[in-house]
Design a protein that fits this description.
The protein is built from six helices and four strands, in the order αββββααααα. It has helices spanning 2-13, 80-96, 111-118, 140-156, 168-183, 195-205; strands at residues 17-19, 28-30, 36-38, 45-47.
Length: 221
Amino acid sequence: MEIAQGMAYLHHYCFVQVIHCDLKPNNVLLGDDMTSYITDFGISNIILGNSMDSLTSTDALKGSVGYIAPEYGMGGNLTTKGDVYSYRILILELLTRKRPTEDIFSEGMNLQKWIEMNFPNRISDVVDNFLLIDAHESETSMVIECVTQFIQIGLFCTREAPQERPDMTEIIDRLNAIRGAFIGNRKTPQLPIDITPFIDNERNMKMPGRENRGSSSMSTS
């Protein structure tokens, strides 16, 4: 939650807009009370007025392999939605304990596709076992459901078109809803758009003989 709140401040509430450009677990530190702090602003961009319109990723391609938004590799403008994409990778990595650059992700396979292949019916096959090790047998299903909600957020942030990704304020709303559902005993939240049919459609479009007919498909890591 602290990471999302920090990014929302940088993107929407700071007196200047800041694009971090390298959001990843290595750039998040934990305090003594386990509060998360975003660090390493060495390659960040400060956006003043409309200067973002002329600043493209080819002017200064920044970030770490596996976390860079796909539009940056095509010369797209640096935007806050690039940080949203990196946040999505961070969430999926924390939940699965798999880095996007691991050797198992090769020959067209990546962290996102690996999770999509098991979503939503085999989530326990990809979730880090340490998230379940302390859970009582009666609590395991609740933990899995909670993790599934977080994975939905991660997958929802991966849209290839930047304008189709949520911003950090929307992500905070989803995180608060999840916390309310599992701590406050309220109804389990659903994303504004059910991503399951979207994933199924993406799988169909990638089948041999099928033409990829849309620019709104989920991107690779």
